[in-house]
Amino acid sequence: MAQLLPFVPVPALLGFILLALVPLRLPRALVTGIGVVSAVLPALVMLPVLVSCVGGDACQAGTVINIISINVSAFTAEIAMALDPVSVVGGITVAFISAMVLIYAGAYMSEEPVADLRRFFAYMNLFLAGMLAVVLAADAVLLFLGWETIGLCSFLLIAFYTKKPKSLAAGTKALVTTRIADSLLLGGLMLLFLATGTTRFDGMLAKVGSIDSWQLTAIAALIATGALGKSAQVPFHTWLPSAMAGPTPVSALLHSATMVAAGVILLVRLSPLIAASPDVAAVVALLGLGTALLTATAALIQRDIKKLLAFSTMSQIGFMVLAVGMGSPAAALAHFAIHAVFKSLLFLSAGILSHGAHGSTAIEALRGSRRRMPLPFWSFAVGAASLAGLPVITAGWYSKEAVLAAVWSSGLWGVPLWALGVIAAVLTAAYSFRVVLVAASDGPEKAPAPWDGLAVWVPLATLATLAILSGFTVNALIGFAGGLPEHLPLLAVLLGAAAPLAGLALAFQFERDPRQLRRLAARLRHRKIFRADSLYYLIFVRNFRRTTKRLSGPIDGNNGAVQMPEPPLVLDVVRLVSGDPIGRALVTAAIRIANTIVARFNPDRIDLAWMSFARSFGGAWARARLIQTGRLREQSLGLALGFVGLLLFAWGTSWR
Amino acid sequence: MSGAALTGMMIIAAGLFAAGLFGVLARRGILFQLIALEVALSGPALAFIAAGAYHGEAEGQGMFVLTLTLAAAEVAVGLALFLRIRRAKGSDDSDAVSGLKG
Questions:
Q1: Count of domains for chain B
Q2: What is the interface pTM, i.e. ipTM, of the complex?
């Protein structure tokens, strides 16, 4: 069954190729069909792999399926996929969640007034294929390939509504921010490759012990930065909230199982490397915890439900990063799987709820949703309860508790960090229940969602059931991923269980007296830490723009830009035949090239500097011709002086 | 011939050449410049003779004969040019002939 593994991303990739390249007009139904089926198939291919993995020992030990080896005499780049707990848990989560989201997207996008449905499904399938490659990869090459693919696809999907400048800007922001982190990751992976001499992760991790400690710190820091950038952790946290500009299924996929989760998957896979460098591990844990706290606070004061969910994603990913930093990747993996379930559930339900509110994503617009659309409301409530981690009955509690337990039992610093984590959990419960309480209150009757049916209810019902029931699998999951379930003192367990309830009480308080929340929001909104976005703009973006403007010179074309008058394209048969058609075509083509390609580069600063350098030769020549008086005496003096100079030179160089 | 005598001869040769060069640079009359050129040429010629005598070999005298014929040819061409210039410009001022001015 292990041989099936390389074929998991293949259907999604085929779906992308089919949708992107087939030169026929496909009807909308067929496009949707291809898009959905090719996204469901990976989950079906993944199932037998999962079953065989749970049964056998080969998977526990970690099997590597070689796909292709590129032999370059000095070294061998092996592209391979791993069959081990990390890849199996990650793979089934990604494949399953994506299948659910794509089924939903089939219904959602069919009602969306977009002309190019094909583009949407093509991107989604490529996105899925890239993410599966990241999760299943056993070598740095395949991982980086998938990593870049999802980076590109996230840009294309966030900026899907190309007519809206805002969504284009959001896509660019996401691309640039993650690209900065990606380049650091590439540097880290290359250094790791140079230090170990192999591209395979098992070989790399086996040699971690023999790397110099300073080198190891640099590698671990670079790789961790790359992962944090993809996962939108502080200080890269600004891109995710603006990424809401894409369609709702995109957000559901981006936030749950793909993209932001890729960083966590990478950290989990390379956790021995992070653990081998305690400084980096500590910084990673602190950044994760800081993100969890900061973004949970930010989520509390949001007015837009999609933004609130975006901040909650960062907060939950922060918990996972914290677990990795604390040396418990198994707990991070478990929280990743559970989080993917309830976060996609939240986004999918929120999509329906906001459609019911005439497309408004403001939280206030959701009032009365319970009456209007009971089923999406209750599925949202289940997702929110799981996000908040209501004790015992929801899956979110078990996985969050596993993370907190890993923090508690990690040593001296564990307890204060654990306390901060519990505060973040209280805030989580507060913001997630606030939305539920607003949606549960009475409100105006509005039109129900225009789309309905099995394609919506199946994903919602499945995900809601899982968000409740999969809690019982958390301990099994952790054990499967090679971690040991931690046992906490009773007090810690009780406090952890009290946190969501406290958050619930806080949410009630805020719902009963909204002025309190508004005051809090007004106070927080102007704190510097919540305005990292504008600070980044001031420091990086504006200066970068200034520099490019300075380098590219004046924009108006009248500074030396020669725009030749373009002759009209010769299509007139009479004019074509008369005269000199070939010569004419050549001249037209030349002018066209000059105007389109050459003129574009014409007046920029580098060019101008170069030209002034050339012009200085003219000046030098004008000065040099003054020496030429034409008088015999002066010329012979010059001759004599030159000769003396040559003699002196010869004498000087032959001096001993 | 001793080394000291050779050094003396070389100094005289350099002085002859320098005097000739000074003549070329300082005088404006073309005829005088030609005469100064002859003086300047005699400096190297003396150096050839002296070096040939010091080494006891015939090449120095051979080179002197060559220099002599060269000087004769140069004077022939120079005097012909001088006559043409006088006829064309009406003066023997070398500064008046500045057709090569840049």
A1: 1
A2: 0.85
